[in-house]
Specification:
9 helices; alpha+beta; Alpha-Beta Plaits; 378 residues; 24% strand; 2 domains; Aminopeptidase
Length: 378
């Protein structure tokens, strides 16, 4: 049997801080190839990506995850060295232990042992990237592009991100909110603060715009999503002189939006508000946008029911179907096939002394194994 705890530890010992591969993708490539999976690399832009498939027929059940991790911060602040994968009091410590080398280890171990014990009448495919914590443009999107070019597909996919806020089994993600960032720059005319009539101060206009945006109620929530939110994340004038009216003022806002909106529609709304304020104050306001992902939903149905039953059977916990949290690579996969996310408790991810319970890693493998068994028995 493939031990998911030992595999998690081996992956944690790979210093794969984005965009470094650190040996993690190569480790999995060798392991899966040795278990009879056909492994192919889908590297792009200097990022290591792996596609591994067992079987040639359909249906194809897919797993997706990432081996890259965020920086450790000060290593001296850690209880154990961040890449040592130390185990203490039933917990495995290390950067990536929760997010999400344990998830990758659990689904890789489940897939390897499942095809060896009960070869399914179908295929299992793993898409593992080294670029999720970074820009993410050459990670899972590169694998999906490679799959399209090579006639590969998923019929359904499970992303192994940590999804549980308190206890293993309490939450399955069936969708995610969209994310939009807008950078706003107000352009005025510099001048002496004693003679404001000779200048055009961009700051009051920018403040007015930010107030209108932040005060606007985007929606009341939808059937599967809570209300959309807008947060002002920075305001920057960069003016050290108190007797000078600056020529520019800048700010940024981030919107996490539900399925009542699209990134394009929200961008258009911000531009309309900016144009109104610019006209009122007689200055210029420019807006630049980045849409990190649109909102999406895998509607509750046979697939989500199958996953929920497997989680409940192995953990004794009835999971909530949720759309909360930030973005994940499921935002790319949702355009390819139905996708859900289920993984470990993520309370320590990205923190100093990131850790997971050893027992939870073993239980997660059992959940994934049952999902595979039920999926191919259906």
């Amino acid at each position: 049997m493939t031990d998911p705890v030992e595999l998690t530890a081996a992956l944690v010992r790979c210093p794969s801080v984005t965009p470094e591969e650190g040996g993690a993708i190569r480790l999995l490539e060798a392991l899966l190839a040795g278990a009879g999976f056909v492994t192919r690399r889908a590297d792009r832009g200097g990022i290591a990506n792996l596609h591994a498939r067992w079987g040639s027929a359909g249906p194809v059940f897919g797993f997706n995850g990432h081996t890259d991790v965020v920086p450790t911060g000060d290593p001296a602040a850690w209880r154990h060295p961040p890449f040592a994968a130390a185990v203490e009091n039933g917990r495995l410590y290390g950067r990536g232990a929760a997010d999400m080398k344990s998830g990758v280890a659990a689904f890789a171990a489940a897939a390897i042992d499942f095809v060896a014990a009960t070869p399914p009448a179908g295929s299992i495919a793993l898409a593992i990237t080294g670029d999720e914590e970074g820009e993410s443009v050459d990670g899972t999107p590169a694998i999906l592009d490679w799959m399209a070019a090579n006639g590969e597909r998923f019929d359904h996919c499970l992303v192994g991100e940590p999804t549980c806020p308190e206890r293993l089994g309490d939450t399955i993600k069936i969708g995610r909110r969209g994310s939009l960032t807008a950078w706003l720059t107000a352009y005025g005319k510099q001048g002496h603060s004693a003679y404001p009539e000779r200048a055009k101060n961009p700051i009051p206009a920018l403040v007015r715009l930010l107030d209108r945006l932040a005060s606007h109620r985007l929606d009341k929530g939808t059937r599967h999503f809570g209300p959309s939110t807008l947060a002002i994340t920075t305001v920057d004038v960069g003016n050290p002189a108190t007797n000078v009216i600056p020529a520019e003022a800048r700010a940024a806002v981030n919107i996490r939006f539900n399925d009542a909106h699209s990134g394009a529609a929200l961008s258009a709304w911000i531009e309309e508000e900016a144009d109104r304020v610019a006209a009122e104050f007689g200055i210029g306001i420019a807006a630049r946008f980045q849409i990190s992902g649109e909102s999406f939903l895998t509607a509750p149905g046979p697939f989500t029911d199958l996953v929920a039953r497997a989680v409940a059977a192995e953990t004794g916990v009835t999971p909530e179907l949720s759309t909360t949290g930030g973005t994940s690579d499921a935002r790319y996969i949702q355009a390819h096939c139905p996708v859900v996310e289920f993984g470990l408790v993520g309370t320590t991810m990205h923190q100093v002394d990131e850790h997971v319970a050893v027992a939870d890693i073993q239980a997660l493998k059992a959940v994934y194994t049952r999902i595979l068994s039920d999926y191919f028995a259906a």
